[in-house]
Design a protein that fits this description.
single chain, about 100 residues, alpha/beta, Conserved hypothetical protein from pyrococcus furiosus pfu- 392566-001, ParB domain, five-stranded mixed sheet
């Protein structure tokens, strides 16, 4: 099973509340293989994911095909640099650092 990772830590509680109230649990991801380990990288929907976790429901996982093509074009290092947000890469459900 792939690890679900992100580099976005900041969440606005009001946005999470709104996502929860609207049952907006849509989360976009890309799938990557790094040294034989599979990762699903959350590229959009961090607040929706937080709402789903908070509400105890399964997020609506949506494969971001355009984002996947962009990753394939840029390669791992360059893509990660361009999508590094406000914290180190971490596993979403355990909060453990990835690298």
């Amino acid at each position: 099973m792939a690890k679900i990772i992100s580099s976005q830590c900041y969440l606005d509680d009001d946005i999470v509340k709104e996502k929860s109230e609207n049952e907006d649990y849509d989360v976009q991801y890309i799938m990557v293989d790094i040294e034989g380990e599979e990762y699903e990288i959350v590229v959009d929907g961090h607040h929706s994911l937080a709402a789903a976790i908070q509400d105890g429901v399964e997020p609506n996982w949506e494969h971001d095909r355009a984002g996947q093509r962009n990753f394939d074009r840029l390669g791992l290092k360059r893509w990660l640099e361009q999508h590094d947000q406000d914290c180190d890469w971490y596993e979403v459900f355990t909060k453990e650092p990835v690298w």
